[in-house]
Amino acid sequence: MRTHRVDVLVVGGGAAGMAAAAAAARVGARTVLVEEGARLGGVLDQCIHPGFGLHRYREELTGPEFAARLVAELDGVEAWTGQSLLAVDPNRPRARTVGSEGLVEIEAGAVVWAAGARERPLGALRVPGTRPAGLFVAGLAQRLVNIHGLLPGRRALVLGSGDIGLIMARRLHLEGVEVVGVVEIRPHPGGLLRNVVQCLDDFGIPLLLSHTVVEVHGRGRLTGVTLAEVDGAGAPQPGTERFVPVDTLIVSVGLVPEVEGVPFAPRDPATGGLAASTRLQTAVPWLFAAGNCLAPFDLVDTVATFGARAGTLAARHARGELSPAPRPVPVRMGRNVAALVPSSLVPGEEAILYLRAREPLDRARVTVGPDGPTRTARGVRPAEMIEVRLTAEETAAMACLQEVAVEVTALR
Ligand SMILES: Cc1cc2nc3c(=O)[nH]c(=O)nc-3n(C[C@H](O)[C@H](O)[C@H](O)COP(=O)(O)OP(=O)(O)OC[C@H]3O[C@@H](n4cnc5c(N)ncnc54)[C@H](O)[C@@H]3O)c2cc1C
Questions:
Q1: How many domains is the chain partitioned into structurally?
Q2: What is the position in ligand 1's atom list of the atom closest to the CA of 168?
Q3: Cα 65 from Cα 44, distance rounded (Å)
Q4: Domain range for residue 388?
Q5: How much is the pTM?
Q6: How far is the centre of ligand 1, averaged over its atoms, from the C-alpha of 292 (Å)?
């Protein structure tokens, strides 16, 4: 087995990993990036729709175009594709990988975990019924259509109106599949308003709010699903059931952060992702994290920004230049917050928090801590993350708090 010594090891070649590796190399760190797939890009590779890069490159790019820009920034990075991580030593920044480079032991000064997220399957929803052919998570259907040129079926229903579900409804429609509708359990769409308009309204695809799939039918192949209306708590209402004949069900009900490769690193119980501070450093000081392994992000631009920050700080840690952080103060989801990253803030340092509101609000106040800083926001939608920037003075004032709750409330 070959041993390779570097300053920074980055695991995952998606937007977060590539941005981390490029940033680490830019500040002079010997950097290796390990990607188990055959190509760099991660999920971007299969997202052939436009809508990427408006913030980072001030251009509207497709996913593969955005990925190509990041690949071009990998100057000085050794990028190994087809190389999968076997294990990370919990006691020191050392990992074993296997693949086209053979079995390699990598000794590093710091590790950036950027392994992305995987999709929540139908099993996670406990929908009763059979499990015939014709059930697909949206990312798999997207890969079949966009990469392999295969259609998953002829008549489809999409469960979940997040951006991925909306985009897949349009994609299947454009490929000639009859998309009978998109079903959403909540009373409002999960995805961006522009995606509701551009993916559903423009093509006459119905959106069924406050509904869900309560049963799956079929033996060899899916023959249909039963839909029902739900109440405010998401419970199906007896008497509202109806059978919808379809041969394909596209399930798009959220992403789960990919963190299995670092079982020793603490998780954030609220997101299921790695718990990291605003330095993107976990409780294991040499382990940094970025991208969807923290929590699913809405915009790739944000993922790349976080990636670059994690890469720079990992390089500084590897060179012994990163001063130990004062005790991080945990940040917690308060009223009307459905997701919040990172999990803690470092007092006395500038911080960026990203959060998702649970309910839409036209005008909102975001409060960080009981008497802490407030920010206002307009047009708050659960699909769009809110960015809250805190100054070093504002975080320093929180140093003695046990935790800080973040809230999003209506502003009149
Ligand atoms: C369908 C869809 C549509 C989207 N549309 C938009 C949009 O229009 N605009 C926008 O801005 N954003 C969009 N996003 C969001 C954005 O693209 C993602 O949040 C971002 O690309 C995620 O990057 P990542 O690096 O965190 O994860 P990923 O892209 O998932 O990359 C993780 C990488 O890690 C690798 N990996 C995992 N485990 C290992 C291991 N053990 N060893 C080695 N490698 C490993 C994986 O193979 C993968 O390549 C969309 C996302 C999806 C899924």
A1: 3
A2: 1
A3: 9
A4: 326-412
A5: 0.93
A6: 7
